[in-house]
Structure formats: structure tokens, C-alpha cells
Design brief:
Shape: elongated
Structural class: mainly alpha
Helix content: over 70%
Strand content: under 5%
Strand order of the largest sheet: 1-2
């Protein structure tokens, strides 16, 4: 185990066991370095890693503190790794997303207010009125994020936001069949909003599940064909051979 790993897991253990609690200032560097048996540089790198995970908060001029450890913040940090998934990996997660989006929609149906409903239909009308893929993507995000917010579980909303952010990297509306995809997506959004307007949890869940299933199907268009995979593999093998030749020549 490297010194950075040792420092990282040492701090993590202090937080997990409750020795350091949410909002607490962590001990001085000198004390931690002595206890964990690491250098200041290794400790600082571990702190940076935990800060990226939203577990620790360095505060300028004040010190370093354990964050509030809100579950929605911790879950939101999954974007650091989910954003690295290739499309095949993202599609494997769509079954989970389908279940969670359905649950969020069902919960929102029971909590829907006239003000929120009006906002959702405003998003729909704006999506229907534009052909700009970037604008549609942003409005789509706001639409689904609003439903998750009304659902009442910030952690669920944060997790769904991570999934949607990775999906947005693929602009399905720019595909040759983009206009048809957009029409179907607009219809899906109206079906979800109509179910929410009726305060029908089952219908809202079903409409949300259908929409996610459609998105999953559309994303499959970005998967490489077997021929493209074979070509990529050949190019990779060619680069390996070239590198081996250079090494042999050196």
C-alpha cells in the first residue's frame, strides 16, 4: 500500500468509525502524519482525494473539516467514475435507472402542485419549440430534475442526475433519425406530465419507464458495429507492433 493510500484509508477509517464526525475540524497535519506514519505530502494528497469525493472540505484560512456528509453530495461524487464509463457500461446501468426514474415519478405524482405542474409543461413547450440539441438536452435535464425534486428524496435525485449527465454526452437528436427521436421524446414527456397532472402514480411510473427504455434504445445507435470493433482492435495491435519494433531498435 502506498503512503497516499495509507493516509487516505486512515482518514476514511476515522470518519467511518465516528472518530471524526460531520462538520468537525480534522486534527493538525503534524498529529495526523505521526499517527498515520506518512509524510505531509502524502497526507495532503489524501485530503485532496477525499475532497473530490465531497467527504472533506478545505476552508481557506480556517482549516480542513469533515463535510456535512449529506448522502446526496456523496452520491453526486459518483459522477467522477460514472462519467468514465464507456457506452456499453452506461447501458448496463439503464435497468437501474428505469426503476429509479419510475419510483421518482410515482412519488412526484402524489406530491404534485399546480405551480410545479405549470413549470413542467413550460419545459415541455420549450422543448417542442426548439430544434437545438443542446437546448433540448438542458430542458430535458430540468424537466426530469424537477420531477425528482418533487419526489422528495434528494439522494435519489442526485443519483439520477449522475446517470442523466453521462447520457447527455451522447446527442441522440443529431442522429439521422433525430427528428423522429425528438418527436417520440416530446410525446414521452407529455405522457409523464399528463400522468402527474392526474396524480396517477402508476401511470406516471409507467410513462417514465417507457421513456427511459426509449432512451436506452436510441443510445444503442452509438455502439460500434462488430466491424468497427475489429478495425479498432487491428489498429491497436498495429500500434503495439510499432512500439515493440521501436524498443527493439533502441
Amino acid at each position: 500500500m502506498s503512503a497516499v493510500d495509507k493516509a487516505f484509508h486512515g482518514l476514511r477509517h476515522m470518519i467511518a468509525t465516528g472518530r471524526l464526525v460531520a462538520g468537525q475540524r480534522i486534527p493538525p497535519e503534524s498529529e495526523l502524519c505521526e499517527e498515520l506514519g506518512v509524510s505531509r505530502g502524502s497526507l495532503r494528497e489524501a485530503v485532496r482525494m477525499l475532497a473530490a469525493l465531497r467527504v472533506i472540505e478545505p476552508r481557506h484560512g480556517s482549516g480542513t473539516y469533515v463535510s456535512q456528509l449529506r448522502p446526496e453530495d456523496i452520491v453526486g461524487s459518483l459522477s467522477l467514475t460514472v462519467d468514465l464509463l464507456p457506452l456499453e457500461g452506461l447501458l448496463e446501468m439503464f435497468e437501474l435507472r428505469r426503476v429509479l426514474e419510475s419510483h421518482a415519478a410515482a412519488q412526484a405524482a402524489a406530491r404534485m402542485t399546480p405551480e410545479t405542474l405549470a413549470r413542467l409543461f413550460e419545459y415541455i413547450e420549450a422543448m417542442e419549440a426548439t430544434e437545438d440539441p443542446t437546448e433540448v438536452s438542458e430542458l430535458d435535464h430540468r424537466f426530469h430534475a424537477e420531477i425528482a425534486r418533487v419526489g422528495g428524496n434528494p439522494t435519489l435525485g442526485s443519483l439520477l442526475g449522475v446517470f442523466r449527465a453521462r447520457s447527455r454526452a451522447y446527442q441522440v437528436f443529431t442522429l439521422p433519425e433525430g427528428p423522429g427521436i425528438k418527436r417520440a421524446s416530446d410525446e414521452d414527456h407529455r405522457a409523464i406530465a399528463d400522468a402527474l397532472a392526474r396524480r396517477d402514480p402508476a401511470a406516471a411510473a409507467g410513462a417514465a419507464a417507457t421513456h427511459v427504455a426509449h432512451t436506452e434504445k436510441w443510445l444503442h445507435a452509438f455502439l460500434p458495429t462488430d466491424q468497427e470493433r475489429g478495425q479498432d482492435q487491428e489498429r491497436g495491435q498495429g500500434r503495439d507492433r510499432d512500439r515493440d519494433k521501436r524498443r527493439a531498435g533502441g
